TrEMBL record:
It comes from the Eukaryota. Residues 49-315 form the AB hydrolase-1 domain. Transmembrane segments: none annotated. GO terms for molecular function: hydrolase activity. Pfam families: Abhydrolase_6. This is AB hydrolase-1 domain-containing protein.
Length: 325
């Protein structure tokens, strides 16, 4: 499989279109890029891919290329398009005017609906969300089911929630690494001397080399210095909303025809035993077809950064099920 992926990867055509023109800004839609295995065939199916806090769509390019390639084999009846979205306050969407507060999960999901409507697209068949993006995906599906975006909305057939606990973040778990990173970034000047300075500073404060270097990738040049590629204050507001939102009611009663697939990273530290037990109970229920279903998957040899720690394993979980859509 690895050899096939490599061969397909070499011939893959990355189609990138960013919404950053004045006309697009007036539509108040998100920045995005498209990944497809080939431009020779029109796409028949669409998956939205949503990044986590302080990330951007580009974090998911490599995985999305491989997923599109695997799903769009010459023998397959479907040609898949991956839409890698920059959520509000992140990536190129941080530069877009008109994405007004409150900066919360509900409005981040509403931005997705506005993107679909502004572009005249069909509604996505699949939505994949990592970490904070997982809750954005859950809220999007919940709002679709309630017809919050209009009567013509079509529900995603599959929702993939990658290492994102669906309930509220407990108070005793609120002093984790993410919170410490945010506190550190808020204490820094808005203009950073250099990427090297930032990485060294983060490591001196006790953060790992890999995390410090990843934070460094979120800098962009501004004259002789560096500034953040995200809106830090807005991102903090989104994270606070992420901690407060709970989607257990949606998981307990999934809309008919939808599968909500939860992927738990084996080495992730954010899963309490009671949450795992509750999810497994929902996944093991015998339904009568009047509602959708929940499935639970464990990604081995991976911490929270699932697409970096074990991208091959994640692909092997996700691709066969999406292929069945």
């Amino acid at each position: 499989m690895a050899r096939i992926l490599k061969n397909r990867h070499n011939s893959l055509n990355l189609l990138t279109r960013f919404l950053n023109s004045p006309t697009t800004r007036s539509l108040q839609t998100l920045a995005y890029e498209e990944v497809r295995s080939s431009s020779d065939r029109p796409y028949t199916s669409t998956a939205f891919v949503l990044h986590g806090l302080l990330g951007s769509g580009r974090n998911w390019r490599s995985f999305s290329r491989n997923l599109a390639s695997t799903l769009s084999q010459p023998s397959a009846s479907s040609e898949w398009r991956m839409v890698l979205v920059d959520l509000r306050n992140h990536g190129r969407s941080a530069e877009i005017e008109g994405l007004d507060p409150p900066h919360d999960i509900a409005n981040a999901a509403n931005d997705l609906a506005n993107l679909v409507k502004a572009k005249g697209w069909d509604w996505p068949d699949v939505v994949i969300g990592h970490s904070m993006g997982g809750k954005v995906a859950l809220h999007f599906a919940q709002s679709c089911a309630r017809a919050d975006y209009g009567q013509s909305v079509a529900l995603p057939k599959q929702l993939w929630v990658l290492d994102s606990v669906p309930g509220k973040v407990k108070t005793e778990n609120s002093e984790g690494e993410v919170e410490k990173v945010l506190q550190t970034l808020q204490s820094l000047p808005s203009s950073i001397p250099s990427r090297k300075w930032l990485v060294n500073h983060m490591m001196e404060l006790g953060f790992s080399k890999s995390l410090s270097e990843w934070i460094g990738t979120n800098l962009k040049k501004s004259g002789e210095r560096e500034t953040w590629a995200f809106n830090l204050d807005g991102a903090v507001q989104m994270f606070n909303s992420y901690r407060e939102m709970s989607y257990w009611p949606l998981l307990e009663h999934p809309p008919q025809g939808m599968e909500i697939a939860i992927v738990r990273a084996e080495k992730s530290d954010r899963w309490d035993p009671d949450v795992i037990q509750r999810l497994e109970g929902l996944a093991n229920r015998q339904g009568d077809g009047s509602e959708g279903k929940v499935s639970v998957h464990v990604l081995p040899n991976a911490g929270h950064w699932v697409h970096v720690d074990n991208p091959k394993g994640l692909l092997e979980i996700v691709a066969p099920r999406i292929a069945s859509v």
